[in-house]
Structure formats: structure tokens, C-alpha cells
Design brief:
Blueprint lengths: L1 E4 L5 H11 L5 E5 L6 H11 L14 E6 L3 E7 L6 H6 L2 H5 L4 E5 L13 E7 L5 E7 L4
Parallel strand pairs: 2-5, 2-6, 4-5
Antiparallel strand pairs: 1-7, 3-4, 6-7
Helix pairs in contact: 1-2
């Protein structure tokens, strides 16, 4: 499904739509160029999950862990700084993906081989006028 967003206020209804699809163990990956809104979108979903103390993008720490009053433990990963799949395996990304918790992952291309088939893909594209097109797909990784 495609959504057109003209400003940040338009993200919340889309975040709520995504929230209806989530269950324990859901993996949501966000794909888009730098500045497309991956972190902003993720933070909107996290707020809708009842998480109030957001730490921003985990670009430097790679992983932020949260506790949702409705969904339990939630991970937000930003894999931009990963250099290889081996590095991801060394820090335990694969184990986190199969802990039966909800994970949001920015820059998932770096670990595509590790993602389960039921991953939810969110594509964000910024337009010249700063509006966004957000596409949400449930698709196999093949």
C-alpha cells in the first residue's frame, strides 16, 4: 500500500496502520536514502506503541532497546555503520531477529540474508517538494 505524506503530521496515521499489522516477533525493515525519514517514521510507530523516552537514531550504538506497555520488548536497529554481514553476526544481530520481539531495522540491505520471510518492508522516498511516499509491503526476501 502506498501513502503520500506532505508533512510530519501525516506520518502518524500511517504509523497507526502499520501498528495494526504488528504482533510479537514482527520484523519491520525500512528502506530509503539518507534523510528519507526512516528514523522519524520508526519513532512515530514507537510512540504509538506507548514508548515515550525515545533515544533517537541508534546510528552510533547500532541498537536501541525499548519496552512497550502493549508489545513488550522492542528493538530499533540502525545498521548504517555495519561493514559486512560477518560484523552483524559477530555482534549478535541474528539472535535478536529470532527472540520473538518486534524489531525495526534501518539499512536492512546489509543483513538481507538473515531476515525471515515474513518481514514487513517499508520503503520511504523523499520528493523534491519534501513530501514523502511511503510504501508498506509484506513480501518474501527472495
Amino acid at each position: 500500500m502506498d501513502y503520500n505524506v506532505n508533512d510530519l503530521d501525516g506520518i502518524r496515521p500511517i504509523a497507526l496502520d502499520l501498528l495494526e499489522r504488528l504482533k510479537t516477533g514482527s520484523i519491520v525493515v525500512l528502506v530509503g536514502e539518507m534523510g528519507a525519514g526512516k528514523t522519524t517514521f520508526t519513532q512515530s510507530v514507537l510512540r504509538a506503541m506507548g514508548i515515550e523516552d525515545l533515544e533517537g537514531s541508534p546510528t552510533y550504538s547500532l541498537i536501541n532497546e525499548y519496552e512497550s506497555p502493549y508489545f513488550g520488548k522492542v528493538y530499533h536497529m540502525d545498521l548504517y555503520r555495519l561493514n559486512s554481514l560477518d560484523e552483524a553476526l559477530d555482534i549478535g544481530i541474528e539472535e535478536l531477529l529470532y527472540q520473538n520481539v518486534i524489531c525495526f531495522i534501518e539499512w536492512p540491505e546489509k543483513i538481507k540474508e538473515l531476515l525471515p520471510d515474513n518481514t514487513i518492508w517499508v520503503y520511504l522516498r523523499a520528493n523534491e517538494d519534501l513530501s514523502r511516499i511511503i510504501t508498506i509491503k509484506d513480501e518474501n526476501k527472495s
